[in-house]
Amino acid sequence: MTEAKKQLLHLVMGGRVTDPMTLQFENLKEIDVVGVFPDYASALEAWRGAAQRTVDDAEMKYVIVHLHKLFDPEAEGK
Fold first, then answer.
1. Mean pLDDT, residues 12-24 taken together
2. Is residue 1 in a domain?
3. For residue 68, how many other CB atoms are within 10 A of its CB?
4. CA-closest candidate to residue 63, choices 39, 38, 34
5. What is the reported pTM?
6. Number of domains in the chain
7. Residue 14 lies in a domain
8. What Pfam families does the database record attribute to this sequence (predicted)?
9. CB contact at 8 A, 7 and 66
10. Is the sign of the CA dihedral 22, 24, 27, 33 positive or negative?
11. Which of these ranges, 2-11, 27-36, 53-62, 69-78, has the smallest mean pLDDT?
C-alpha cells in the first residue's frame, strides 16, 4: 500500500487594500474567501483566476496563505 500524499492546506483570499504595496485590507467584512485547497498547485490556479478577474483594479489584491505552516511551522513543503 502506498503512503497517502501529505495534505498541505492553502487558503486563497483577497480584497481591497488601502495601499497596493501592503496587505492592509480596507474592510475585513468584505474579504473574498476564494477557498481552501489541498495543495499549492490548486491554490495557485484559484489565485490566478481571482487575480486576473481584478487585474485592472490596483487596489484589489489576492494572496495564498499557507495554512499548513500555521498548523505545523516546522513542516517542509510549499
1. 94
2. no
3. 20
4. 34
5. 0.83
6. 1
7. yes
8. DUF4170
9. no
10. positive
11. 69-78
Give tens-digit pLDDT for 37-55. Answer: 999 999 999 999 999 999 9
25, part of any domain: yes
Does 4 reside within a domain? no
Q: How far is CA 15 from the centre of its chain?
A: 11
Identity at 6, one-letter amino acid code: K
Beta-carbon contacts of residue 2 (< 8 Å; ≥ 6 apart): none
CA distance 18 to 55: 16
DSSP, residue by residue, the chain: -PPPPPP--EEEEEEEBSSTTS--BS-GGG-EEEEEESSHHHHHHHHHHHHHHTTT-TTEEEEEEEHHHHH-TT----
* CATH of residue 54: 3.30.70.2400
